[in-house]
Design brief:
Two copies of one chain form a homodimer.
Chain A (H helix, E strand, L loop, with lengths): L3 H7 L8 H18 L5 H8 L3 H13 L3 E3 L15 E3 L5 E7 L3 E8 L4 E8 L4 H18 L6 E8 L2 E2 L5 E4 L4 E4 L1 H8 L4 E5 H11 L9 E6 L3 E7 L2 E3 L30 H4 L1 H10 L7 H6 L4 H25 L3 E5 H21 L2 H6 L1 E4 L6 H29 L1
Parallel strand pairs in A: 3-6, 6-10, 11-14, 14-15
Antiparallel strand pairs in A: 1-2, 3-4, 4-5, 7-8, 8-9, 11-12, 12-13
Helix pairs in contact in A: 2-3, 2-4, 2-14, 3-4, 7-14, 11-12
């Protein structure tokens, strides 16, 4: 029987891991093990990461030297035998900021390097890219003031509802009206810290891996709805990005032949039926004017609202059947604004999913609502910042050691 | 920016590579490098695999000892400097057999360990599992006789149009009518060699990686049609199997709401429109009785045939849009019986694909017809046998060395 490991080989293009990428991986691995298990000793980190004693020792020494991790006040964590040093992420090491840029809103969160939330805030957004950056800049200042924070900002991660290519260029953000934008350098010029940018749904998917309900799941799909609808695919434990970096365009699956016109130029796309704006527009058609998705959830007793929620559940369940038939995931997580109405969609969603999915694949999958809620994308920004900051500092460390050598 | 490598880490479940799995990978890697580059020296194998000199040396010594690789007659492959030994897969090492089991046919191929075809043959199949095994057993004897072959059969790989779970159990093969079958032990009992079994499309996808057009492609989707329609997903250079091992059920995407009844119990599945049997049935409805897909291809000038091929192209293009929107592949390969009519489907297929796919993802993907043709699944069997044989012999080698130690 073929094993996934060896198939990577048979595909003829093994991922060549050089010593630098292995060092980077080991560093990230040790950091996250300590983040999720504060107070661990080096020995415990070895067990948690599967790395040998010498490797853990080198990584720990380097992280300590950079002030990212430190000894805890209580030093002995072992009941018997020689006392061991309990380690933890250094509180003094600085903070991270995560943000979600949407046409009408900017949502931000500040955390410690360990991902503990210090403050969050939501402000008005803008479709004008310069204006959006200015708003974000002021927002971050206010956020940090509110948190009483004067530690160094080690990184800012921003999730954007758009298609990013493999080089990190924003190709198209239809709902923001941005196209071919060098958004990262523009942000970095205005924000006084390293900036990391990614598609909002990809960012949120990684946040679910790091901070949410998917920590131990190898195959899951994250579905989120804000201005549009996006999907993040974590397959065999890795975020799958596709050839151009555009994988997971769940919102643009054609689910109604010749259906509603979509901003992308096609017809019948899923997001023209299940995005917040589409739901509000459909209710408007039926004579119900509601301001946002929270109002929809509150008005669930209204028969017209019930009718629209049933339609949304049916369309979403049908679209998810394609994902399940193709990807045989263990878990589908509904996040973003979809999380607000997720429980109300379940009856028709589950019916449509069951109707269109092969039985053994249906039995493998479960549906959950994101526990990160509206903070999923901002926390995805934290994940981006954490990752960027951990991997860029290894590059700097390598450059230092090369200069020395 | 997140890197795929580090994301595997952040998903919290790093793939722990122990020394045994690394040895297995190195062994497979060296063997395939030599298979694709016969006459290579150890030094060249090092360059091709990215492995260091000492590792290559150990693997080569082991493979030589087992009689799998040997020195070539001409020993010097280097123009200047010290002469180097040219290596090659040993012709004496034995042969492999690959087979495809279908309700009406069994197709077989015999190759060298290097994958060079010695003979192929197609015989009648059976829906009765015992009868099918007997037919296969006799067929293999005849195949080897025809090839004038008396070298040892090192492995037999069989592709089956069914759902295999992660443990290699056949859960369901609707078109064969087999369910919950321990097919591998049954085959091994009757065939005098180690047997490896997998879903036919997964096997064919790996064959495309090893022997076909996908040797240098990291993200591709293999679509095949025989009695049903299946999909193999190679993502980030690995065959993606999903949680239960059922990923890639392209044939059961619902593409016509309330459409034709499918053998799976659902309605409107893709395969009820584009499998060989469905195409022949649709032609029958229109008053054209044709025996098989080759006859359909020959009758392409007939307006009724043209109409049905246009319908098939439209349905297939629509279904492929889901795959492209979700997975952003670089390449889609049409194989099996679909390969026979692929060029005839292209006009409507491409139109439907373009109509339902987001532009940047459409631009990333190209469509090709499998060069392996009807031998794709049997060659997939060869890939299974090769893989199984290479990895099981490392286990044996380890057991030997443990007994010694």
């Amino acid at each position: 029987m073929l094993q996934p490991d060896s198939v990577e080989q048979t595909a003829g293009m093994p991922t060549k891991m050089n010593s630098s990428s292995i060092r980077r991986l080991n560093r990230v691995r040790v950091f996250h093990a300590l983040r999720q298990n504060p107070g661990s000793s080096q020995r415990e980190l070895g067990r948690l990461t599967g790395l040998d004693k010498a490797t853990v020792s080198v990584v720990v020494a380097q992280l300590q030297q950079e002030g990212l991790i430190e000894r805890m006040a209580s030093t002995s964590v072992r009941r018997v035998g020689r006392p061991e040093t309990a380690l933890t992420i250094a509180a003094s090491a600085g903070v991270l900021v995560g943000a979600r840029l949407e046409p009408k809103t900017i949502r931000m969160v500040a955390t410690t390097l360990a991902g503990e939330i210090l403050a969050h805030m939501q402000i008005d957004g803008s479709r004008n890219v310069r204006r959006a950056i200015t708003l974000l800049q002021k927002g971050i200042q206010e956020l940090l003031t509110q948190a009483g924070e004067n530690r160094e900002v080690r990184g800012i991660g921003v999730g954007i509802p758009g298609m990013m290519n493999r080089e990190g260029r924003l190709v198209l953000a239809p709902n923001l009206g941005w196209r071919n934008s060098e958004i990262r350098p523009m942000l970095e010029e205005n924000l006084n810290a390293p900036v990391y940018v990614d598609n909002d749904t990809n960012a949120a998917s990684v946040a679910e891996c790091l901070f949410g309900i998917c920590r131990t799941v190898r195959n899951f799909i994250f579905i989120t709805g804000h201005s549009g609808v996006g999907g993040g695919l974590v397959l065999d434990g890795r975020l799958y990005r596709g050839t151009g970096g555009f994988a997971g365009e769940v919102g643009h699956l054609s689910i109604v032949p010749g259906g509603r016109a979509c901003g992308c130029g096609k017809r019948g796309c899923l997001e023209t039926y299940v995005s917040e704006a589409s739901i509000l527009a459909r209710l408007e058609e039926l004579g119900r004017t509601l301001p946002d998705i929270w109002a929809v959830a509150e008005a669930q007793g209204d028969p017209k609202v019930r009718q629209v929620l049933d339609e949304v559940g049916t369309h979403l369940g049908f679209a998810l059947s394609h994902l399940v038939n193709l990807m045989n995931p263990e878990l589908i997580v509904l996040g973003g604004n979809l999380a607000v109405i997720a429980q109300l969609l379940m009856p028709t969603l589950k019916r449509a999913l069951a109707e269109h999915t092969l039985r053994p694949l249906l039995e493998d999958v479960r549906l959950e609502v994101s526990p990160l809620g509206a903070d999923a994308v901002p926390m995805g920004g934290i994940a981006l910042a954490l990752e960027g900051f951990l991997t860029s500092s290894v590059v700097m460390a390598e450059e230092r050691s090369q200069r020395r050598g």
